[in-house]
Specification:
Layout lengths: L4 H10 L6 E3 L9 E7 L3 H10 L6 H5 L2 H17 L8 E10 L9
Parallel strand pairs: 2-3
Antiparallel strand pairs: 1-2
Length: 109
């Protein structure tokens, strides 16, 4: 199936307050959607979420936690439903990779 990469990225990024950047790799040899999520400027709200949900650790540990992946998954699933994405464009929880980058990381590139 054809995957409209930019549309899927936009749906997930625009509808998840914790994701500063969502990247969908253009891999043609797999039959599933996977996303890479960068958390940077939104780390303040992520850490507040972590405190409210009993997730301990520094920024990197929180972003890589299973509980945070579950929160991303729930946001992405709700966005996919709301925007009426076809079912094959939804991302499975196991296919979400989240990473923390300190604010300003782009300037170092």
């Amino acid at each position: 199936e054809y995957v409209p990469v930019e549309e899927v990225e936009k749906v997930f990024q625009d509808n998840c307050a914790f994701a500063d950047f969502v990247f969908l790799p253009k891999e043609t040899k797999v039959s599933y959607v996977a996303v890479c999520v960068i958390v940077s400027d939104s780390i303040g709200s992520v850490m507040k979420w972590a405190k409210d949900n009993g997730v301990q650790g520094d920024e990197d540990a929180v972003v890589k936690s299973d509980k945070f992946r579950e929160a991303l998954y729930q946001d992405f699933e709700a966005a996919a439903k709301a925007k009426k994405l076809q079912r094959f464009l939804w991302v499975a929880k196991k296919n979400i990779h989240a990473e923390y980058q300190a604010p300003g990381y782009q300037e170092e590139w």
